Amino acid sequence: MMRRMVHPPPPPRWGLLSRWVGPVLVGLTLASCSLVDIPDAPLDSLEPAGPFARQIDDLFWLVFWIAAGIFVVVQGGILAAVFLFRDREGRREPKQIHGSPKLEVAWTVVPALILAVIAVPTLRTLFDLTECGEDAITVEVIGHQWWFEYRYPDSGVETANVLVIPAGREVCLEMTSDDVIHSFWVPKLNGKRDVVPGQTTLLRIQADQPGLYWGHCAEFCGLSHSLMRARVRAVPPAEFEAWLAAQQQPATPPEEGTQAYQGLQVFLNRGCTQCHTVDYGPDSSFTNIVPEEAFNGPNLTHFADREVFAGAAFPYEGLPYDEALRQWLADPPKAKPGSFMPDLGLTAAEIEDLIAWLKTLE
Ligand code: HEC
Ligand SMILES: [Cu+2]
């Protein structure tokens, strides 16, 4: 006769807690992965918007369903064993065995085969995602603390924060960093890839449809890492060509006597040119004084073409654009901790003039 294990009932104070722990954990888990569909979740990698992100999504679901099948088989086996061989009145103890070579070989070989099968599409996808196609448009991405710079080598265009691409075409990102390791990640267009100083890493992206796609630096890179965002604006191909042509043009200087003209004077007299470039054409360009310095800021020639600034983190939701600029210019390191743009002690009037001027930089 087998001896029964008698468990004392759990102390009553745990009763209520244990009843809730399960549902709460399950609820939290479901809420964290977007099994619960959150409309317009900007960083949702389960909603691919282009062929490369879709490749990842397809691979994810393939592995997910294989894993789900294994889960069901293993858990089912455990539950069956618990149920069929449970201790009951009058039942004899089951045969006790030590090891079963057949079983052990089976549960080693079968998982190895499953892994080998999964490895084929995984490796293929992995290599495919980082090798660019021949017809791709090249854009150089340079990571800075804490913003992304974009250069279009074929047309000499230089911009920041908003990466403009033609919809329906592959874009090859040649990425490097000016300081520490960053990671470029726009989940609806492809997976993340490290952006490493002294190295060039490749990432291909493509958007099926025109639209705005959010991204984020995905490698902790210092104080304002959380404010280092990326935004991709995909536009119809004709619009892209027009955009490139407009970006190649210098900005138009403001007319004397306007507030924008006052703003330009503030820009020239308050040390902004130490770190920022504004191209007003061959006769009157203001190139940052020390072009290769790490603390240099974005090229401002077409600042007003970008709807977001300072690492695409501003204006954040609920903050009007002008107010965001005001906060930024008044004290950049307060708006964005650690920012290499210093507090230049601008007066309120100077800030208003600068805002008027910045808006002329289309
Ligand atoms: C010491 C270098 C430095 C000086 C001087 C400086 N900036 Fe900046 N600026 C930066 C850096 C770096 C950034 C990017 C900061 C970030 O996003 O974290 C920046 C960002 C900006 C932006 C946002 C641009 C964008 O597209 O994201 C504006 C606008 C700007 N600066 C205006 C000015 C003005 C106006 C002045 C002069 C009053 C000035 N800056 C002086 C370094 C400087
Ligand atoms: Cu970063």
Description:
By secondary structure, this protein is α+β, with helices and mostly antiparallel strands. It folds into 2 domains: 42-248, Sandwich (Immunoglobulin-like), CATH 2.60.40.420; 259-358, Cytochrome Bc1 Complex, Chain D, domain 2, CATH 1.10.760. Helices cover 36% and strands 15% of the residues. The chain is built from 8 helices and 10 strands. The chain has a 5-stranded mixed β-sheet with strand order 3-2-1-5-8. Strand 6 and strand 7 form a beta hairpin. The longest helix has 34 residues, at 51-84. The protein is elongated. The relative contact order is 0.10. The model has no long low-confidence stretch (mean pLDDT 89). Copper (II) ion (CU) binds next to loops.
